[in-house]
Amino acid sequence: LERLGVGNWKKSRNWRSTGFFGHYVTYAEVVQLVASLTLGLFIASLGIAAGKHRKNNGDGDQNKAVGLLRGFSISPVSIALFISVLLMSLALLLTATRAPQGAFLVSAFLIVSIGTGRKVLLLLVALLIPVIIIGALYLQQSRETGFFDLSDASTTWRLTVYREGFELWTKNARHFLVGVGMDSIKRYAAEWHLFDDGRLPMGHYHSTPLQLLVERGFPALIFWLWVFWAYVLKLFKALRANPFRDWKDRGIVLGSLGGAIGFFTSGLVHYNLGDAEVAMVFYLLMALSVFIILERVE
Fold first, then answer.
1. Which of 157, 155, 181 is nearest to 169 (CA)?
2. What is the pLDDT of residue 83?
3. What is the C-alpha to C-alpha distance for residues 118 and 175, in angstroms, rounded to an integer?
4. How far apart are CA 148 and CA 297, in angstroms?
5. Of 112, 151, 149, residue with least CA distance to 254
6. What is the pTM of this model?
7. Cα 228 to Cα 251: distance, rounded to the nearest angstrom
């Protein structure tokens, strides 16, 4: 080593991809939403490609369709979208952030199950098995922890602040109804003996529902859940009715639905609604999908 000019060596520090963002969690949450949108567009493009193929054949025989499965044909747009989904999945893997990764799996399962048939869904499950194994191995190597590890520091930190948040929310009737106020947990952390009485790093509650409960109260959480439910239900009904004139419209609505479910899933253990960049992308997808339904469909 001395002859090679190496003075000393040590194990390189673990790194997690952040993209152009300041934190890997923010990056992972945004990637999950954009990847869900892209996957929705990819699934919708398969449907329109197959439709064109059947129309060109005249007899509508799906067995003659060219593609991975019968009834689907692959266009250049489909290939580009598929490659984009793969690259985004790789970027999400490199963040080593468990909640958005799991949320994207939930989103992908929902998008494929609604947008295609049983054969494609089974194919997705078969493809996901090795991906999940590779992801778990990468997570173990990069963070030295498993996907579900109660001994992990981030998990024990969450369990502590979850308990503290619930106790603070139920401390009195005022906290239960209107909360303690936004960012009050940081201002009065020492007085309320939060974050293990100062022994843990100060932050938030790493859960969107719990954060809304503690800071804004129970009625605020119910209102947020009602808005979210109304939004998801509208997208689901539109997809069931399938009145779309353009495959891109259907793809945006399909991807927005998957992204919304993924956003909610990840929000159970992340305060992603409080992350400005993530919330901006979520509300942008909400605006696009609702606009399509109201202005181009109904």
1. 181
2. 94
3. 48
4. 43
5. 112
6. 0.81
7. 20
- For residues 31-58, one letter each, b for 16 or more C-beta atoms within 10 angstroms of the residue's C-beta and e for the rest, the string is bbbbbbbbbbbbbbbbbbbbeebbeeee
Nearest CA among 133, 205, 216, 143 for reference residue 179 = 216
Alpha-carbon span 44 to 94, nearest angstrom: 27
- Which amino acid is it at 217? G
Residue 153 burial class via C-beta count within 10 angstroms: exposed 0-12, middle 13-18, buried 19 and up: exposed
Please report, as a single letter, which amino acid is at residue 176.
F
Residue 11 has a pLDDT of: 61
Task: Write out the two tokens for 227.
Answer: 């808005």
Rounded Cα–Cα distance for residues 253 and 223 (Å): 23
Over the stretch 72-123, which tens digit does the pLDDT of each residue have? 567 889 899 999 999 999 899 888 888 899 999 999 989 988 888 676 667 7
Token digits of residue 169: 């929310």
Using the structure block, give the residue that is written with the tokens 């106020």: 181
DSSP conformation class of 272: G
Name which of 29, 89, 27, 18 is nearest 263 in CA terms. Answer: 29
What is the spatial distance between Cα 83 and Cα 77, in angstroms, rounded to a whole number?
10
Apex 237 CA angle, 232 and 239, nearest 5 = 95
- How far apart are alpha carbons 108 and 248 in whole angstroms? 17
Name the token pair of 46: 């398969």
Confidence of residue 12 (pLDDT cuts 50, 70, 90): low
